[in-house]
Amino acid sequence: MVKVKIERYNNQIEGVGYTGGKVIFVPKTKVGDIVDVSVTEDKTKYARGKVTSPNTNVDCPYFYECGGCYLRHFSYDESVKLKYNNLKQLFLKDNLYTGDIKVNKSSNYFNYRNKISLKIQNKKIGFYEEKTNSIVEIDECLIARDIINDFLKVIKEFKINNGTIVIRCNYNDELLIIINTDDEIKYKFDKLKENFKIAGVVLNNKAILNDDFIIDKLDNKLFKISYNSFFQVNNLGANKIIDIIKNNLDKDDDILDLYCGVGSIGLAASDKVKSVLGIEIVPNAIKNALFNAKMNNISNANFILGDVSKSLDKIKNDFNAIIVDPPRAGLDQNTINFILNSDAKKIIYVSCNPITLVRDLKIIKDKYNIKSVDMIDMFSYSYHIETVCVLDRGN
Ligand SMILES: C[S@@+](CC[C@H](N)C(=O)[O-])C[C@H]1O[C@@H](n2cnc3c(N)ncnc32)[C@H](O)[C@@H]1O
Q1: 179: left (phi over 0), alpha (psi -120 to 50) or beta
Q2: Is the same domain home to 85 and 170?
Q3: Do the strands 15-19 and 22-26 form a parallel or antiparallel pair, or are they unpaired?
Q4: Given a cut of 90, is residue 163 above it in pLDDT?
Q5: pLDDT bracket for residue 98 (50, 70, 90)
Q6: Is 204 left (phi over 0), alpha (psi -120 to 50) or beta?
Q7: Is 269 in the pocket of ligand 1 (CB under 6 A)?
Q8: Which of 19, 32, 82, 391 is most buried, taking the most CB atoms under 10 A from its CB?
């Protein structure tokens, strides 16, 4: 155990102090805190630790153990400000962008998640402790939607020893339960229908009750989402992203929607533009996107299955707007080259990882100017943010 004075924050908003002449990262502390810390990692150049005598009381009983939320020891406004400061610094570096960054705070920073992923180990059900594989058992999660918390009360009855359970819900409080386990389950899942609206139960990739998908709403459109398709976890935040994108599109635009998932962005934007082509690697997500176009009577959108990087060679590079919404790793060189060789008037980069966003923008800005940057706080109390960056060709 060491005593540490927290002097600043790193880019994950962890407290940073010193011990034995070495830097130590202590999550869940504030600048000015003097705290007892147990060292969990001791490397040559740095150490990590866990605060054992927190200075701040928080509303969640699991916060100091659980690896889910990171920032509950700050007020909501403080947490947003810290995230904004980090983003601003990243953009200021090398003069990438010195303009305003618009901050879109969340209006639902409690109970916003429509999906949680639980681990089960030796009958213990919960989330992983930060940077470990040990389970923090939970009865409730303050950032999950209420219906998910109601469902948490019955999970023990399934008598699963080891595995994972993902719980998804939709606008209508229906639930899709996705279980992976090698255990034999004797539980009669039909019983769930007495107390819950069950869209489906999927066991080891097969629906064993009702369907293997759920239908949710964004931007007043319906989206079929298969059990293994991506969908944003915060519907209000996702609607905000869509608003920003739509405000930057024109009726003559042919848009390319890269990493399109179930088509949420492209289909939501379809009534503002001439045409949409989406590309996505998960087969079920592409099937969903094609179905979603039909379900919403959209006839100007098409979707193709493939790895973005490998598919770009096969399509004509004649779009006047390119939207990219890649996973955390950001864009690969082939995709960046496609953008740089395009005649697109605008690029809209939606990112869940500011580090890779800024890395990619540093290359893309050779040809495009950054017109606006929006930070959307849609993963409240975690250190994550979503950023939407609009670029144009200037003159
Ligand atoms: C951040 S999500 C965005 C999805 C969608 N735009 C939305 O808002 O719901 C990233 C998507 O990229 C897909 N993906 C990941 N790697 C890919 C690749 N190499 N090529 C195509 N799609 C990929 C994932 O399956 C996921 O659906």
Answers
A1: beta
A2: no
A3: antiparallel
A4: yes
A5: very high
A6: left
A7: no
A8: 391
Could you give phi then psi for residue 334, rounded to 5 degrees? -60, -40
- The protein residue whose alpha carbon is closest to atom 11 in ligand 1 is 259
Query: What distance in angstroms lies between residue 98's CA and the mean position of ligand 1's atoms?
Result: 29
Ligand 1 pocket mutation pick from 114, 225, 281, 385 by most atoms within 8 angstroms of CB: 281
Residue 81 has pLDDT above 90, yes or no: yes
Query: pLDDT of 48-79, one tens digit each?
Result: 999 998 889 999 999 999 999 999 999 999 99
Residue range 181-204, pLDDT digits in tens: 999 999 999 999 999 999 999 999
Q: How many CB atoms lie within 10 A of CB 108?
A: 15
264 inside domain: no
The CATH number given to whatever domain includes residue 148 is 2.40.50.1070
Query: Would the CB of 127 count as within 6 Å of ligand 1?
Result: no
Q: Is residue 381 part of a domain?
A: yes
Among 242, 246, 259, 322, name the best residue to mutate to test ligand 1's pocket (greatest count of ligand atoms within 8 A of Cβ). 259
User: How far away, in angstroms, is 375 Cα from ligand 1 center?
Assistant: 20
Q: Which residues span the domain enclosing 136?
A: 115-215
Residue 294 lies in a domain: no
Question: Would the pTM count as exceeding 0.85?
Answer: yes
Q: Is 259 in the pocket of ligand 1 (CB under 6 A)?
A: yes
Give dist(CA 193, CA 189) in Å, integer.
8
CATH code for the domain of 241: 3.40.50.150
With beta carbons less than 8 A apart as the criterion, state whether 378 and 234 touch: yes
Q: How far apart are CA 91 and CA 97, in angstroms?
A: 5
| Whether pLDDT at 211 is above 90 | yes
Please give the tally of structural domains in the chain: 3
Question: Quick one: 253 and 372 in the same domain?
Answer: yes
Could you tell me if the CB of 232 is within 6 A of ligand 1? yes
Asked whether residue 6 is domain-assigned, the answer is yes
**What is the rounded distance in angstroms from the CA atom of residue 281 to the CA atom of residue 311?**
10
What is the pLDDT confidence band of residue 130, given thresholds at 50, 70 and 90? confident
Work out the pLDDT band at 395, boundaries 50, 70, 90: low
